[in-house]
């Protein structure tokens, strides 16, 4: 009796392994992906059929990428003839590949070295290895062609559009039409910039991307983009700290960061004099007596201070400029990514705030801020009570509690590294 094979997949560390009914475990290493199998051809055939059946019925975990809090995962298919692109894609969890009709042998060759789901594009449709229709393909270059694209007209679960002329407006129109449909709409993209347009159109974006490239770099850039967006679904751990010192320090060059997004009460940027501890500095979204609210602005601190940016990195406030991304965080630790629209550096009077965490660690965390009523730190939320979200630095006193993000202090070009470091 032949053994029963069940795929066990870990897409980050290993290629799949198969567990037999006799409890033997075989691992497919990247260097020797098919060693230890007696019947190689039958294993290839069975595992390919298992994977592609999953492609037909739903998005497999390996072809989806998270895209932030409250948003659906986005699906990614790769269209390439380049083996290096294939390898890089599989290593990053994208294993659904589109092949032109003349490259069927390439699909067979790649299936012998990696577990992939090969799809084949033809005239107006995409088929799997068993000639089942997986998607319908539309070329869109006119408004009439776009008007004919309707969710109720097609039988396939997936629709792939090739936008030959305009990109943004057609993508927005498609999203509006298909918003109540269960179908997934892919757009063919030749680079990460196009992909970003399709994934973010009308805020929700299309359901997936067919990345058509012959170079590894755009694939890596698209993966980095997804990794940045994935941060929005991960809560940051903010801890309470007690203020130990408040000291008027003198003049310095401080940075106002104006974003292309509006912030709400309790939101701000993570800033600190040392990367080991970043304070949650509140935005200027609150209504005050003498000045209008500016819900797009954070008066963040002096030029030397660190600010949290996507990718688990930091940069100096002096390095921020229009177009860069920063992480906006609320008092619950929920992050989102925002684009910097403008940076203003002006000389102002500064105040030094030092704080200590509630653990046994005696580490002191510090931040300089402009000494003004509009500048505030975020305090912790106390249960169900509506505690004050923003504590102005002008009224801050020893013993007050504020929120900060504790992390590794050693940094190289903003990336956390493991090394001995002393900062005072």
TrEMBL record:
<protein>
    <recommendedName>
        <fullName>3-dehydroquinate synthase</fullName>
    </recommendedName>
</protein>
<dbReference type="InterPro" id="IPR030960">
    <property type="entry name" value="DHQS/DOIS_N"/>
</dbReference>
<dbReference type="InterPro" id="IPR002812">
    <property type="entry name" value="DHQS"/>
</dbReference>
<keyword id="KW-0028">Amino-acid biosynthesis</keyword>
<dbReference type="Pfam" id="PF26558">
    <property type="entry name" value="DHQS_2nd"/>
</dbReference>
<keyword id="KW-0057">Aromatic amino acid biosynthesis</keyword>
<dbReference type="GO" id="GO:0008652">
    <property type="term" value="P:amino acid biosynthetic process"/>
</dbReference>
<dbReference type="GO" id="GO:0016491">
    <property type="term" value="F:oxidoreductase activity"/>
</dbReference>
<dbReference type="GO" id="GO:0003856">
    <property type="term" value="F:3-dehydroquinate synthase activity"/>
</dbReference>
<dbReference type="GO" id="GO:0009073">
    <property type="term" value="P:aromatic amino acid family biosynthetic process"/>
</dbReference>
<feature type="domain" description="3-dehydroquinate synthase C-terminal">
    <location>
        <begin position="241"/>
        <end position="424"/>
    </location>
</feature>
<dbReference type="InterPro" id="IPR056179">
    <property type="entry name" value="DHQS_C"/>
</dbReference>
<dbReference type="Pfam" id="PF01959">
    <property type="entry name" value="DHQS"/>
</dbReference>
<feature type="domain" description="3-dehydroquinate synthase N-terminal">
    <location>
        <begin position="74"/>
        <end position="226"/>
    </location>
</feature>
